[in-house]
Amino acid sequence: MDRRAFLAALPALGLAGCARASVAVEGKAALLLKGAHSQISKTLAYDPAYTRIPYPNGDVPLEKGVCTDVVIRAYRTIGIDLQQRVHEDMAANFRLYPKAWGLKRPDSNIDHRRVPNLQVFLTRFGRSLPVSQNPEDYTPGDLITNLPGGRPHIAIVSEVRSTLTKRLMVVQNIGLGTQLNDDLLSYPMTGHYRYAV
């Protein structure tokens, strides 16, 4: 087994952060997390390349993606297309979104795949919660944004608790595909959100 396949298999084997205990989750949050977990061992690569995709419900191939794709795919399992919602809000309120990419208008191929855009959208339409270093302040289904290596990143707080740190783990693609990691408080935190769960 090559290194990538081995690392992708760790969450399924329960070896990533020694995950064992789970918190009970119901309703939309449970479905959202099921959608997030379903990407583990399927999305095996991190690929930030600009890709033309259909609209609405467009996606890059499941075997690759970035951190935002984990969130977008999970939300589609509860009937929410963030591609469409972000695009519609950006079309109506473009001035409220970051200008870091030099765009003159929204681009439905990429806008929803950028963490700073999701942060604006989540602040506008979800609940922006306090950022805390207390792991008990986070609930399964919450979204966190942080800065691993100084780059914007987003992850979904899972229902799985690490037996090593007792913290809830996160489902994310931080470079090796979608994985379950004990990274809730590993990097400088920039946001904590709850949306539609």
Describe the structure in your own words:
This protein is of the alpha+beta class and 197 residues long. The protein has a single domain (3-194), classed as endopeptidase fold (from Nostoc punctiforme) (Alpha-Beta Complex), CATH 3.90.1720.10. The protein is 27% helix and 20% strand. It has 5 helices and 9 strands; from the N terminus they run H-E-H-E-E-H-H-H-E-E-E-E-E-E. The protein has helices at residues 3-13, 27-37, 67-76, 82-92, 115-125, and strands at residues 19-22, 45-46, 64-65, 127-128, 143-146, 153-162, 168-173, 178-181, 189-194. Strands 1, 4, 5, 6, 7, 8 and 9 form a 7-stranded antiparallel beta sheet that branches. Strands 2-3 form a two-stranded parallel ribbon. Strand 5 and strand 6 (153-162) form a beta hairpin. The longest helix has 11 residues, at 3-13. It is globular and about 45 Å long. The N and C termini lie far apart (38 Å).
List keywords for this structure.
197 residues, alpha+beta, endopeptidase fold (from Nostoc punctiforme), 7-stranded antiparallel sheet, two-stranded parallel sheet, globular
